[in-house]
C-alpha cells in the first residue's frame, strides 16, 4: 500500500530514486561506511552507503543512509534488519538533512512504534503506547467510523484495515443519495483500534482521497 501510494505522488523514476530505495538508519558511532555496507548487503544490491558526520568535528552522528538498487530490497532491509537500527525510508534529498534528522530522532525515541513500520508494524509491540499517548481527548473504543469522499469497495477496505492485527469485521454502508463512503470497523481490542486510527486517519486511499477515522461508542468502559 505504501509503495503504491508513493508511486502516485510523482514520476516512477523520481519516486524510486527519492522515496523507495534509500533507507535511514541509526548506527553505532564507531561504524565506518564499510561496516554499514557489510551489515546491510544481505538484503540486496547496495548502490552506496553514507554516514552523517558533524560538520565541525568530522565525528559520526550515529546515523547513516543505505541506497539500494530496487525498492523491494529497501523494503526487505526495513522489515528484516535488527530493530536497534530503527530503519525507515529516507526523506527525499530536497528536504534538509537537519530537519529530517530532528524528525527522525523525535519520532524514533518514542516507544509506541517500536518495530519496523512500512508503514504498519506487524510486531506484537505495536500496542506498547506510552501512557501519555493513550490519554486521548475523545472516548476510546474497539470500534471505528471511516468516512471518505469516495465510495468504498468492501474487499479493499477490509484488506487495508486487516493490516492491523485483530480486525473482527468491516461493514461498508452505502448512501444512495451521495457518492461518499462510510464504514464501521471493529477490532478485538481497543489497542488495535487505537493503532489503526493512529496510522490510517488522514491516510490517502486511494491516493488523493484522505480517510477520516474516528472512534465509535461500542458500549464498553473506555477507561480500560
Automatic annotation (TrEMBL):
GO terms for molecular function: RNA binding. It comes from the Eukaryota. Signal peptide: none annotated. Keywords: Repeat, RNA-binding. InterPro entries: Nucleotide-bd_a/b_plait_sf, RBD_domain_sf, RBM45_RRM2, RBM45_RRM3, RRM_dom. Residues 21-95 form the RRM domain. This is RBM45 protein. It comes from Sterrhoptilus dennistouni.
Amino acid at each position: 500500500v505504501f509503495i503504491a501510494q508513493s508511486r502516485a505522488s510523482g514520476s516512477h523514476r523520481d519516486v524510486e530514486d527519492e522515496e523507495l530505495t534509500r533507507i535511514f538508519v541509526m548506527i553505532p558511532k564507531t561504524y565506518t561506511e564499510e561496516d554499514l555496507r557489510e551489515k546491510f548487503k544481505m538484503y540486496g544490491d547496495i548502490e552506496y552507503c553514507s554516514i552523517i558526520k558533524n560538520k565541525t568535528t568530522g565525528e559520526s552522528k550515529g546515523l547513516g543512509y543505505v541506497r539500494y538498487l530496487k525498492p523491494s530490497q529497501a523494503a526487505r532491509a526495513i522489515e528484516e534488519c535488527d530493530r536497534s537500527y530503527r530503519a525507515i525510508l529516507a526523506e527525499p534529498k530536497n528536504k534538509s538533512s537537519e530537519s529530517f534528522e530532528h524528525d527522525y530522532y523525535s519520532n524514533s525515541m518514542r516507544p509506541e512504534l517500536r518495530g519496523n513500520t512500512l508503514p504498519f508494524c506487524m510486531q506484537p509491540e505495536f500496542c506498547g503506547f506510552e501512557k501519555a499517548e493513550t490519554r486521548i481527548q475523545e472516548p476510546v473504543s474497539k470500534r471505528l467510523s471511516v468516512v471518505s469522499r469516495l465510495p468504498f469497495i468492501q474487499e479493499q477496505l477490509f484488506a487495508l484495515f486487516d493490516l492491523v492485527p485483530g480486525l473482527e469485521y468491516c461493514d461498508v454502508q452505502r448512501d444512495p443519495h451521495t457518492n461518499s463512503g462510510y464504514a464501521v470497523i471493529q477490532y478485538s481490542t481497543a489497542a488495535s483500534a487505537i493503532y489503526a486510527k493512529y496510522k490510517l486517519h488522514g491516510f490517502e486511499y486511494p491516493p488523493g482521497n484522505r480517510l477520516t477515522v474516528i472512534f465509535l461508542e461500542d458500549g464498553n468502559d473506555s477507561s480500560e
